């Protein structure tokens, strides 16, 4: 799983590059945790790349078990983005957050 990598990107304040749903994406990690079903997820602001919804920028909740090839970049994150709220209710256990 990519929990440690996602939390490292958050703590360093860097953009995370990854493959997800067949698309390349750049995201700013805001929170990482687990759902009630035990799925590792991250709340992110996508800055670029593709998406199934054809919305290349904006808020996303991504399952970490579906991520491929996560890489922490040297690009600074602009987090927190407008609308971010701590203690995401989707996550029953939060590992790291802004």
Task: Describe the structure in your own words.
By secondary structure, this protein is mainly β. It has one domain (3-97): SH3 type barrels (Roll), CATH 2.30.30. The protein is built from 1 helix and 6 strands; from the N terminus they run H-E-E-E-E-E-E. It has one helix at residues 3-12; strands at 14-20, 23-34, 40-49, 58-63, 67-76, 93-97. Strands 1, 2, 3, 4, 5 and 6 form a 6-stranded antiparallel sheet that branches. The relative contact order is 0.31.
What is the CA-based Rg, rounded? 12 Å
Annotated CATH topology: SH3 type barrels
Helicity range: 10-25%
Tally the beta strands: 6
CATH class bucket: Mainly Beta
Provide a quick synopsis of the model:
It is built from one helix and six strands, in the order αββββββ. The chain is mostly beta strands and 98 residues long. Strand 1 and strand 2 (23-34) form a beta hairpin.
Name its key features.
mainly beta; 1 helix; 98 residues; SH3 type barrels; six-stranded antiparallel beta sheet
Please render the helix and strand layout as text.
Layout lengths: L2 H10 L1 E7 L2 E12 L5 E10 L8 E6 L3 E10 L16 E5 L1
Antiparallel strand pairs: 1-2, 1-5, 2-3, 2-6, 3-4
């Amino acid at each position: 799983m990519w929990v440690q990598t996602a939390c490292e990107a958050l703590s360093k304040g860097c953009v995370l590059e990854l493959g997800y749903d067949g698309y390349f994406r750049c995201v700013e990690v805001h929170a990482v945790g687990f759902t009630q079903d035990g799925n590792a997820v991250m709340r992110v602001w996508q800055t670029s790349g593709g998406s199934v919804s054809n919305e290349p920028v904006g808020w996303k909740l991504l399952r970490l078990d579906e991520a491929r090839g996560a890489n922490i970049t040297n690009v600074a994150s602009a987090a927190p983005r407008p609308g971010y709220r701590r203690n995401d209710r989707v996550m029953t256990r939060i590992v790291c957050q802004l």
